[in-house]
Amino acid sequence: MGGTVEVQGRGEEPGEIVALLRHLYESERFRFGLAVFDAVTVVAFVVLTFVPPEPWVIVVDAAIGAMMLLELIGRTLIAHRRTAFLLRPGTLVDIAVTASLLVPSLVGSLAFLRVLRALRLVRALRVVRELKRRNAWVAERGELIETITNLLVFVLITSALVYELQVGRNPDIRTLTDALYFTVTSLTTTGYGDITLVGETGKLLSVVIMIVGISLFVKLAQAIFRPSKVHYECQACGLCRHDPDAVHCKHCGNLVHIETEGM
Q: From 1.20.120, 3.30.70, 1.10.10, 1.25.40, which CATH number describes the 1-134 domain?
């Protein structure tokens, strides 16, 4: 094998780099680092959303954008079908968000910019899945944590959408806080009536928020009081998620002794 590499010389370098990157991305420690990076970007986007655009904010955006660009290049190089990878919706969103962070002067005026950045919050779901694999406490409460994360992501993305569609048209929506306030009152069906959306798109968006909001809150209540799965490690095969009334492990058939209210 050493002779082959020696004969091909520089021709092997790209292959070696890709192999090295794939090995790196398969590393548990590196994948955990990516999960931490995703969590940091999610928190940064949430915080910076409510901060006025000042010079230091642009610097932070550029730093995050540079790291996202490097990570995106790495994922592109290790992809077996690079064209298909680049055309994925998630990849296209990452490209748009990265461009908006690195060149804000070119895309800063686009109305959907804040919505695109908010879509980055979907990465929070990836972080939760990664933590479930590594942390027993998170794995045991995985359904509840995922439900809460889904709710928060929906609230933040919807608030960004409400702001971009209504600011300048609706005198009641002047800041992102106004949009967040409307979204939460609509999700909870409280409906104080002090802020309403204008136009046909505003009415349709209100309907979507209320319908989805009820579904998310019902799922949250179910996850708190009656989860669809319980955490119990099978002594034979190690499977940790079972139906609440399970008697046998679905994976190996071993008897499981899940504690219930009747025991």
A: 1.20.120
